[in-house]
Amino acid sequence: MPSLREIRDMLLFAHSDNLISEEECFLLYDLNNLELPYWSYEQFDLDLSNDNECKAEFRFYKRDIYLPAEVLQIPDQIQCYNRLVVDGIEALCIFLKQFAYRCRYSDIQQRFARPVPQLCMISTQVMDFIYQTHNHRLQSFNQPLLSQASLQNYADVIHATGAPLPNCWGFMDGTVRPVSRPGKNQRVLYNGHKRPLCVYGDPAYLLNIHLQGPFKGVRITPIQNEYNTAMSRVRASVEWVFGDITNYFAFMDFKKNLKIRLSAVGKMYIVCGLLTNARTCLYQSVT
């Protein structure tokens, strides 16, 4: 299918070769040149929105948006690569609005009174900032919240919930996230699980003293089976988190928009995971 620019070029060539009249050229050119009058909308002002609007559009209540902005260290002003400067809260809201639904940038023009290129740059800048500043929190065990005292506290809570192991402080799991089929290097993304193309896979973990798993085999004892059932029951909450990410940030569940080499799909998922965790800290988990 030809691009919009190619269609416009063909119209101009057709006019220059006297295949269409000047009136026909202008008419067809205007039909393929959508006018999106962003300048006719009101400038974005968070104070003019109510709590319900903010919760639906940005996944946070209005009074709470400032807190994750502070915790995530969003600056008062964000500067894009073309030197466009935008208010930090507005920039965060643009990112949240874009990822809360399966929408295009043109769909949120009316909300922020900005052209599509600006919305794209601002959203990308916010994503890059959050990732560069906080991605280590999901990719390293060297964290203050994983101190010896904290690990013991986690283990006590999990054991009190019904886990047979008294020293289990957490659970490991992974998920397969489908993406749009790329034109090249499909084999790199293919993992054979239900035949989707994916970015994240669930590896086969090897057991050791620090990593335990269920008893395997068809001839396990009743006690071992009871152990597996109890541990499976308490670890199910980890799987719920994967659902929370795509429920609150539905853009990540629309694989046609998740195009490798055109979008930073892995970075998007990590940032949405961090924001989902921020929601859980504010509102607790409902799953």
TrEMBL record:
Domain DDE Tnp4: 197-277
Top-level taxon in the UniProt lineage: Eukaryota
Coiled coil region boundaries: none
Pfam hit, one: DDE_Tnp_4
Cofactor names: a divalent metal cation
InterPro entries assigned to the protein according to its UniProt record, in alphabetical order: HARBI1_dom (IPR027806)
GO molecular function: metal ion binding
Record keywords: Metal-binding
Keyword Chaperone attributed: no
PANTHER family: PX DOMAIN-CONTAINING PROTEIN
Protein name from the UniProt record: DDE Tnp4 domain-containing protein
Taxonomic source organism: Acropora cervicornis (Staghorn coral)
